[in-house]
């Protein structure tokens, strides 16, 4: 069955905008479909795959992108998503090759995505604070981020009263990165040594076979994973590292020590961090000595995290869902459609299913 809709849509001459088509109640501006049709496409886009939508609605995926942008823009204009903000989290996510990023802002109290824009620089954050407004910026109490200067700078300038909390996951990832640098250094040394590798352990020298380099090459995940998540084989790998590579083992303990700091929290966590910084300063591992200096530069925001227990865990969860949406949105030629789809699915802007 085929249904055709005919209606008079007069063209009007506007002194400011020229000749335009008069608005009609059953379609959005610039749309080639009815409002109900677009609402159904938007509802499906937040719940179904690309193939399902294009086959069911018999439209191209690019058309879906245009519809999503229109529906989300209208829903966003009708809802003040920035009202009542007190605690927010800020992060960036790559959405396309070539260093294309989105900055996302999430409300810690509602768990909703409230703002997103392309870019990863200070002016992107200034654009958000500009939309938020000076008075609302003064109402912010907490802000969680990964410690990047392009976030902390605008945050301090626009909302100096907000407590900046460093995300524990990112701080521990700094230690994981330092540990991986040490692992590669030890692996290169073992490989260059050839048949035997002299390794100083306590007061004696252990001579390892050439298999040491090969075994270290596959020890990466055992060193990265949390101890409670290790498999039996990975536990055996760590035990082997403890006996044969004490330099690398000490680096592993430093990484785990920093992770323990955030498990303790509060004053106990601060005391543990002070001891960890002292250990890092005298550990004679350059990567962790530099990490200790970096942590001292972010000490205020790390202390705030230990006091308030705020992290970017919620934001990382939103990031994971956006990555799924990004894969589903493959084929969109502009970030507006992707942002619109993320807002529909994660920002509470999905329209009700027409007729329900």
Task: Give an account of the 3D structure.
- With 356 residues, this protein is of the alpha/beta class.
- Among the domains are: 87-167 and 311-330, Ribonuclease H-like superfamily/Ribonuclease H (Nucleotidyltransferase, domain 5, 2-Layer Sandwich), CATH 3.30.420; 168-308, no CATH class.
- It has 16 helices and nine strands.
- It has helices at 35-45, 50-57, 61-78, 122-132, 134-137, 149-158, 168-193, 211-217, 220-224, 232-244, 246-264, 266-281, 286-297, 299-308, 313-328, 335-346, and strands spanning 11-14, 18-21, 87-96, 100-107, 113-118, 142-145, 163-166, 197-201, 204-208.
- The strands form three sheets. The protein has a five-stranded mixed beta sheet, with helices on both faces. A two-stranded antiparallel ribbon has the order 1-2. Strands 8-9 form a two-stranded antiparallel ribbon.
- The two termini are 22 Å apart.
Question: Which features characterize this protein?
Answer:
single chain; 356 residues; alpha/beta; Nucleotidyltransferase, domain 5; 5-stranded mixed sheet; two-stranded antiparallel sheet; 16 helices; 56% helix; 14% strand
Question: What secondary-structure arrangement, pairings included, does this model have?
Answer:
Elements: E1 11-14, E2 18-21, H1 35-45, H2 50-57, H3 61-78, E3 87-96, E4 100-107, E5 113-118, H4 122-132, H5 134-137, E6 142-145, H6 149-158, E7 163-166, H7 168-193, E8 197-201, E9 204-208, H8 211-217, H9 220-224, H10 232-244, H11 246-264, H12 266-281, H13 286-297, H14 299-308, H15 313-328, H16 335-346
Parallel strand pairs: 3-6, 6-7
Antiparallel strand pairs: 1-2, 3-4, 4-5, 8-9
